[in-house]
Amino acid sequence: MSNPLRIAVAEEKGNVPVTILHISGDLDSKTYTDLESKAGELIGQGANNVLLDLGGITFMGSAGLRAIHGIFKKLSAGGAGGKLKLANPSDAVARIMKTLGFDVIFEIHATVDEALGSF
Amino acid sequence: MSQGAESARRLEIRARLDDLGRVRDFINEHVSPESLGDDGAGELLLAVDEAVSNVIMHGGSRADGRIEVQVARSPDATCVTIRDEARPFDPTATGEPDLGVSPLEREEAGGFGLALIRRLVDELRYRVTEDGGNELLLVKKRR
């Protein structure tokens, strides 16, 4: 069953403030722009350390990587040393990232807590 | 369709992104993890999603154009045929992107769909149909 994309935003104050996007549902060619837009909005409001929690994603195609790449570019363009990290990918999501070479580009953590501790 | 097919199922959708979820539901329903394994079934699902997305986003189809997806299973393989009315485009004839280059060094991270499809299926065949449309056959062999 296909699932609508949902994005829940949370803020964590650890070593540095981190904006977490908990993503659930299908991240496909129809919905990837929703993720990119939401992250862009948060970055525009000053989010500089961004963590994508991929744990709830039920389907992700190459469009999902396009969105993640877009978010990375927005953070890089800000000139404030913005960081993007990913956490909690399913086996299927981890596999597509590896297949397309994204696993060596992005910092991917097994859990959200581990990722938070790394900022 | 391949000889010896045990069963064939067919779905027709409009060429619009709103219908992508229906394609995935259809594939999930008719592609058996028992024959392909969980990984194999998931790879075929992803390949079909990429192929149909390409047709909708880059094929220049009218929004009311139609895309037909057919699944046929044989003892040895599962075959998915995608037919559309978009302008002729042979995805098997495109160059292979250099995946050794960091995706972040590219201006655009798009264009991965076809590379993914090639890696996810065992066989990819294309032909122009009698009425000038496209037909793409994806074959995933039983493991």
Supply the key terms:
heterodimer; A: 119 residues; alpha/beta; 5-stranded mixed beta sheet; 4 helices; 5 strands; 33% strand; globular; B: 143 residues; alpha+beta
* Low-pLDDT runs of chain B: none
Q: Give the strand order of the largest sheet of chain A, numbering strands 1, 2, ... along the chain.
A: 1-2-3-4-5
Strand pairing plus helix content of chain A: what structural class? alpha/beta
* Quaternary organisation of the protein chains: heterodimer
Indicate the proportion of strand residues of chain B.
Answer: 25-35%
Sequence of secondary-structure elements of chain A? EEHEHEHEH
* End-to-end Cα distance of chain B: 20 Å
- The SSE order of chain B reads EHHEEHEE
Largest sheet of chain B, in brief, is: 5 strands, antiparallel
Low-confidence runs of chain A: none
Structural class of chain B: alpha+beta
Question: What is the radius of gyration of chain A computed over CA atoms, rounded to a whole number of angstroms?
Answer: 13 Å
The beta-strand count of chain B equals 5
Distance between the termini of chain A: 36 Å
- Taking all Cα atoms into account, the compactness measure Rg of chain B is 15 Å
